[in-house]
């Protein structure tokens, strides 16, 4: 017993000594800044939590393509701090438990400097605590309000895409003013859908409108007709947002349900039709209806040069499908976020003088110090502002209308439309 | 919507669910009834049917109806061949021991699912319906194809019943079910009967999938739901009883349609699961099953 105690105290002492030595070693470069340039030209390794399989697979396919295209542009322009960059893609099956495992694998086994790219909110919420445990930056592309709401932690940031609360607040005035004030909402029954439910209901009320029914549908559902009788007859606008493999079935059945009879106005988040050809048989009824798009899939008449460059680099044609396969429609409204996030990482690492994993905290602080992103090759979706306290970016939203089978922009919000008071100050939290 | 049309929609949805359930469950019930094998991979045969229907729809030129008819013939044959192979290579080697076959079919489930993921991909892909006809009622519209599925399902079930009750093949199957040893003594090749029954079960699942895929899309994870629902139907109806399967499918399907339309789809699932629990407690052999010896 005694010997064991002694053994224990000895080993603790040696560990402490080791830690002190380690801390000294870590502190060295800051004492001798000249040494920092004696770094290796070893690649910077970025982990990508990819929805390659599971309910987010169509997004995953395009997120991988977009990130790979952005990486090519980045490396051709000299990488980050002169070092080449690698992305290590790892499939999370669009599953929260696997998401956290994949995060750990990327951070500890693949030795990635950070992890980015996750979209589905349940995966992000399931993974973020792991990011804080491992103290590895986690840059999400998830749209959810969970970053800016303060639910997550200082290591989790969302610099590449606007959150749902801001999106719906920006569009509610247009919906109330042009489509109607009595709204029935149809949304997926998980965190992302609940953001829509909560914040759109509040936003439309602020415009003098009212949500008269909220219909939640499990994201794994495959048959939808049975939900539609819950739509009240006095509904003026159906607000629909669906995700998952069955989105096409959802929209088709909505069309069958109303058929040629009278129907309310339709306002959909393009999520209901991401990766789906709007000209699919059975979707003719969508002609004239409106959609939110983070980034219009059809090349608009006033497309900027940056947008044209981005579209060509990723390999998307003017209709929003792959240049090699017109049936392979992109998740265009969302996937720009991976491109833009990669360039935020570049800007952050360069501002922080990033050398390696020891500078992870400096990287987070450098991104927190950012305030705006100008429209550019790095930010082809448009100008954005970034709130370092809430870790959230704010961008422009488009409302498009199906005209002759193409989605044509009829309204674009301003940045100010999407602002709301801060709900958290992550910079006051410890690392 | 007022009560009348509301109920009509609920019943129509319920009939479609019943048709799907009966078709998916009848193969499972048949395999258990004759071979005493609980086939956990049954849902994956369903999935394979849908996925292969997508391939057929891509390869066969001409209008969707032609590809659909081709799929209706080819896909069940393809899946039946895989099932027969699985029976000969795996189940036969295990001498059809109940515990071993459950574990083996769980393995088969994963093999088939991952094979579909590798060769077909993770995306849900639509298969066009043979015709796009919509019934426009005064209160709501309804897919004409869904109504056709109900009719087709009734025809298939009638066919299965005729096969079992009236044909020589059915007689041999029933003889094997009744007493395997005596059947063998009378010169029936039991191995071949078992392979045939397993193939028939797989083929029926695939046939159900081909009928359903135009209203659902083909996806590599789509086998899980039909498997669970088939088990629910088969347990309530009585394992191995064709009549019980059909009646249980109608019961579950219609109650699912009505409850999920008037209340919530989740409640419908709760009720179905509760029914299974009650049947297991009060009538373990199922409504129409015979008590195991």
List keywords for this structure.
heterodimer; A: 431 residues; alpha/beta; Rossmann fold; 8-stranded mixed β-sheet; 7-stranded mixed β-sheet; 10 helices; globular; disordered N terminus; B: 293 residues; mainly alpha; two-stranded antiparallel sheet; 11 helices; 2 strands
CATH domain topology of the largest domain in chain A: Rossmann fold
Query: Count of helical segments of chain B?
Result: 11
Largest sheet of chain B: 2 strands, antiparallel
Evaluate the radius of gyration of chain A.
23 Å
User: Number of DSSP helices of chain A?
Assistant: 10
C-alpha Rg of chain B, in Å?
Answer: 19 Å
Q: Estimate the global geometry of chain A from the Cα principal axes.
A: globular
Q: What is the CATH-assigned architecture of the largest domain in chain A?
A: 3-Layer(aba) Sandwich
Keywords (chain B): Amino-acid transport, Cell membrane, Membrane, Transmembrane, Transmembrane helix, Transport
Protein name (chain B): Branched-chain amino acid ABC transporter permease
Membrane topology (chain B): Multi-pass membrane protein
Transmembrane segments (chain B): 6-33, 45-61, 67-90, 102-122, 142-164, 193-215, 227-254, 261-282
Account of the protein in words:
The complex is a heterodimer of chains A (431) and B (293). Chain A is of the alpha/beta class and 431 residues long. Chain A folds into 2 domains: 42-163 and 335-395 and 422-428, Rossmann fold; 165-303 and 396-418, 3-Layer(aba) Sandwich (Rossmann fold). Chain A has helices at residues 2-31, 57-76, 96-109, 121-134, 164-178, 191-206, 247-258, 305-314, 332-352, 360-368, and strands at 44-50, 85-91, 114-116, 138-139, 156-162, 182-188, 210-217, 237-240, 265-269, 290-293, 372-373, 384-387, 392-394, 398-403, 406-412. In chain A, strands 2-1-3-4-5-13-12-11 form an 8-stranded mixed beta sheet, with helices on both faces. Chain A has a 7-stranded mixed beta sheet with strand order 7-6-8-9-10-14-15. The longest helix of chain A is centred in the N-terminal third of the chain and has 30 residues, at 2-31. Chain A is globular. The two termini of chain A are 39 Å apart. The model of chain A is unreliable at 1-9 and 26-38 (pLDDT under 50). Chain B is an all-alpha fold and 293 residues long. Chain B has helices spanning 3-35, 42-59, 64-91, 98-120, 144-166, 168-178, 180-185, 190-216, 224-237, 242-262, 265-282; strands at 134-136, 141-143. Chain B has a two-stranded antiparallel sheet with strand order 1-2. In chain B, β1 (134-136) and β2 (141-143) form a beta hairpin. In chain B, α3 (64-91) runs antiparallel to α8 (190-216). Chain B is globular and about 65 Å long. The termini of chain B are far apart. The model of chain B has no long low-confidence stretch (mean pLDDT 89). Classes of the chains: A alpha/beta (431), B mainly alpha (293). Chain B: Keywords: Amino-acid transport, Cell membrane, Membrane, Transmembrane, Transmembrane helix, Transport. Chain B: The chain crosses the membrane at residues 6-33, 45-61, 67-90, 102-122, 142-164, 193-215, 227-254, 261-282. Chain B: Belongs to the binding-protein-dependent transport system permease family. LivHM subfamily.
């Amino acid at each position: 017993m005694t010997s064991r105690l002694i053994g224990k105290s000895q080993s603790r002492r040696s560990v402490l000594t080791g830690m002190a030595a380690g801390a000294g070693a870590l502190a060295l470069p800051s004492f001798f800044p000249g040494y920092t340039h004696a770094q290796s030209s070893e690649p910077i390794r970025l982990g990508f939590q990819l929805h390659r399989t599971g309910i987010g697979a169509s997004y995953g396919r395009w997120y991988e393509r977009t990130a790979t295209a952005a990486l090519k542009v980045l490396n051709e322009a000299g990488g980050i701090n002169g070092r080449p960059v690698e992305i290590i893609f790892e499939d999370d099956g669009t599953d929260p438990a696997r998401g956290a495992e994949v995060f750990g694998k990327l951070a500890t086994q693949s030795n990635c400097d950070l992890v980015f790219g996750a979209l589905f909110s349940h995966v992000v919420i399931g993974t973020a605590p792991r990011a804080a445990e491992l103290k590895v930056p986690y840059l999400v592309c998830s749209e959810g309000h969970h970053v800016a709401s303060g639910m997550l932690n200082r290591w989790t940031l969302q610099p590449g895409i606007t959150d749902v609360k801001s999106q719906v607040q920006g569009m509610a005035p247009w919906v109330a003013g042009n489509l109607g004030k009595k709204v029935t909402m149809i949304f997926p029954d998980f965190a992302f859908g609940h953001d829509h439910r909560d914040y759109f209901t509040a936003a439309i009320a602020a415009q003098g409108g009212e949500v008269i029914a909220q219909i939640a549908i499990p994201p794994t559902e495959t048959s939808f007709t049975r939900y539609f009788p819950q739509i009240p007859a006095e509904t003026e606008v159906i607000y629909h947002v669906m995700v998952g493999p069955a989105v096409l079935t959802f929209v088709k059945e909505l069309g069958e349900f109303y058929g040629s009879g009278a129907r309310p106005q339709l306002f959909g988040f393009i999520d209901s039709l991401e990766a789906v050809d709007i000209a699919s048989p059975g979707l003719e009824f969508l002609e004239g209806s409106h959609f939110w798009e983070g980034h219009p899939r059809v090349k608009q008449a006033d497309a900027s040069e940056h947008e044209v460059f981005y579209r060509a680099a990723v390999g998307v044609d003017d209709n929003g499908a792959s240049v090699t396969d017109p049936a392979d429609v992109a998740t265009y409204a969302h996937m720009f976020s991976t491109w833009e996030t990669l360039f935020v990482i570049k800007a952050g690492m360069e501002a922080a003088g990033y050398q390696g994993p020891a500078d992870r905290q400096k990287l987070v602080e450098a991104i927190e110090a950012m305030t705006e992103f100008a429209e550019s090759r790095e930010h082809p979706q448009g100008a954005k502002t970034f709130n370092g306290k809430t870790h959230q970016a704010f961008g422009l939203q488009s409302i498009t209308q199906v005209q002759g089978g193409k989605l044509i922009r009829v309204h674009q919000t301003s940045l100010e439309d999407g602002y709301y008071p801060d709900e958290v100050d992550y910079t006051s939290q410890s690392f | 919507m007022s009560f009348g049309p509301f109920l009509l929609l609920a019943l129509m949805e319920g009939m479609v669910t019943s048709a799907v359930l009966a078709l998916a469950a009848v193969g499972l019930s048949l395999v258990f009834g004759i071979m005493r094998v609980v086939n956990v991979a049954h849902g994956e045969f369903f999935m394979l049917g849908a996925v292969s229907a997508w391939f057929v729809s891509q390869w066969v030129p001409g209008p969707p109806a032609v590809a659909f008819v081709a799929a209706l013939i080819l896909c069940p044959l393809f899946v039946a061949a895989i099932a027969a192979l699985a029976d000969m290579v795996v189940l036969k080697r295990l001498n059809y021991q109940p515990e071993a076959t459950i574990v083996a079919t769980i393995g088969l489930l994963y093999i088939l699912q991952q094979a579909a993921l590798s060769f077909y991909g993770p995306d849900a892909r639509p298969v066009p319906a043979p015709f796009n006809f919509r019934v426009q009622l005064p209160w709501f519209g309804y897919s004409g194809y869904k109504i056709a599925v109900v009719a087709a399902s009734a025809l298939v079930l009638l066919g299965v019943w005729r096969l079992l009750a009236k044909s020589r093949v059915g007689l041999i199957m029933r003889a094997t079910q009744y007493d395997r040893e005596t059947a063998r003594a009378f010169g029936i090749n039991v191995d071949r009967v078992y392979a045939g029954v397993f193939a028939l079960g797989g083929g029926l699942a695939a046939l159900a999938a081909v009928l359903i895929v135009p209203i659902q899309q083909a996806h590599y994870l789509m086998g899980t739901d039909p498997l669970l629902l088939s088990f629910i139907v088969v347990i309530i109806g009585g394992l191995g009883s064709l009549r019980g399967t059909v009646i249980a499918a109608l019961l579950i399907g219609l109650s699912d349609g009505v409850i999920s339309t008037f209340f919530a789809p989740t409640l419908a699932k709760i009720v179905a699961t509760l029914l299974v629990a009650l049947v297991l407690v009060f009538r373990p052999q199922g409504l129409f099953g015979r008590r195991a010896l």
